[in-house]
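Many introductory courses stop at the sequence. We go one step further.
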Amino acid sequence: MSEHDKVTISEITPRRSYWLPMLGAGLLVAGGATIYQESQTSELRRQLAASQQNSAELQARLSETDSQLRKALTSLEDDVARVRHEISASVAKAQVTATRRADFAASRIAKQQEEQTQQLTDELGKVKEFSLEASTKLDGRIDGLSSQVGSVKADMEAARADFQNTKLEMQRARGDMGMMSGLIATNSKQIQVLRELGERNILEFTVVKASGMRKVGDIQVKLRKTDARHNRYSLDVLADDKLVEKKDRTVNEPVQFYTAKARQPYELVVNQVEKDKIVGYLSTPKLTIARSQPPAEQ
């Protein structure tokens, strides 16, 4: 063996002794890694088995749920079909009922219309009959009214003629003051004519001696004495707080006196003289305007 070979062998020997521990360590690490890997693989396999079991259980549950859903869907479809059938039957029944009711209502309405038409026809017949009867009665009443109107006209004409005749019978007279009076009424009929003429105010009175002063219109009179046999009387007249005595006046004689209220004189006419009583009327002017001059002495 050469020197070169010795050197080489000597160099190689130390190197082998250096890599052996390292190789052993590497083998140990590799073995550990292999053990760790096998351990991890075993855990993964276990987890995979568990997952597969869970998946199988989930699949079984899904199958069961699907079966239940299918059953529920089938039941729901059956219920829907039943409800549709019931609704169809109810609708058909309702249509039949509505048709019957409509036919009944139409028949009833037609009957009512027929009855109302007949009733209206009967009422129209009654109205026509009543109108004819009323027209006949009205014609009779018109004839009677015409007769009454004619009679009233005749009565009015007679009353007017009587009024004119009564007016012609009435006379004018000169009063106790020497003034010509208007028409003199001698009875109740003529007094009414004076009222209707409307020329003066007419107030009837009855004065009894025992009653003392008696108010007649806006004056007062007091009967002092009467002479029924000769139709004469005496009285006092109180006007404007002035007392005037009228002595021995006769029936239907205008007793005249002035007041501050009128230019024309008042006239007192006695138509009846009885024992202690006189009956007559007071005639006063329509216009009651105060006179500018004092009245003449009475």
